[in-house]
Amino acid sequence: MAFRQIAILLLLASLFPLTGYSWGFFAHQRINRLAVYTLPPEMVGFYKKHIRYITENAVNPDRRRYAVAGEAPRHYIDLDVYGDSALYKMPRYWQQAVEKYGEDTLMAHGIIPWHINRMKFQLTQAFKDRNVDQILRLSADLGHYIADASVPLHTTRNYNGQLSGQRGIHAFWESRLPEMLSDNYDFFVGQARYIEQPQLKAWDIVASAHLALDSVLGFEQELTLEFDEEKKYSYEVRGNLTTRVYSREFSEAYHRRLNGQVERQMRLAIHSVASYWFTAWVDAGQPDLRQFASTLSAEEQERLRMELKEYEQGPHLPREEGESHLHQNTWIPGRRE
Ligand SMILES: [Zn+2]
């Protein structure tokens, strides 16, 4: 490759370094979609009828981040801010957590486990109200937050490896690896199960993610020592953008070392999403979903159109399904999902 071309690539790479997002469009949509198939017979018909909605809207909470104040902290929790054994010491319930740390502190470092529980309550209420608009919206959103909670890098302030010289590891783990390799994952996760303690279960999900964090960061560091810089990365051209990505060779080596971790966390997410939906429905008294309206209201359709429009016109690059790579690797300072 000519020196000039390399220089241009390096320049572009520095303009668009690797960055971090939540699971990426691909994995979020796949998790919500697959969750539908694990529902019991009384629920699966309704969710299958709306599977396109549940799938396509799996990423709405990320889109809303720019329009809705207070949205950002719902996607993560920086556990390490609270000390080494925070995972075990943090108050499980919101009220106790507020008493101990104050709401401002909690909002500053992320509230994902409490937000999952809150969404579950709202979904239960929506089932009681037989409000199809709300049931679908909350189901899709809840799926998103649960999926985020199962990502190790959503449980640390070093969420993109920016504190350990590993910038870009976020999108690597949760977008590039599943996009490249998840066709070989086993997504048969068994039936959705009733969750006795939804708030504690949210913490179990966060715990499983957080306990995997050392491997996520450590294995990348180990492998980096074994790979030459030019073998670690490759460049992809999409449209008129060139982005630096982890090479296939490095990705596969990392994936082998993680020994199924991404697959395990995706499976956990799928099963948990379905189990929360199921639990909300049971807690609402198991309403007969066959009698529910089969389409969204005109108001809700309009709201969705507006939300999408606002997102597309917002102060950021749009990310569309099929182009996710291109945009997921485009770093926007201060942005976090
Ligand atoms: Zn997110």
From TrEMBL:
Coiled coil: none annotated. GO terms for molecular function: hydrolase activity, acting on ester bonds. CDD domains: ZnPC_S1P1 (cd10981). Residues 314-326 have a biased composition (Basic and acidic residues). Residues 314-337 are annotated as: Disordered. It comes from Pontibacter virosus. This is S1/P1 nuclease. InterPro entries: PLipase_C/P1_nuclease_dom_sf (IPR008947).
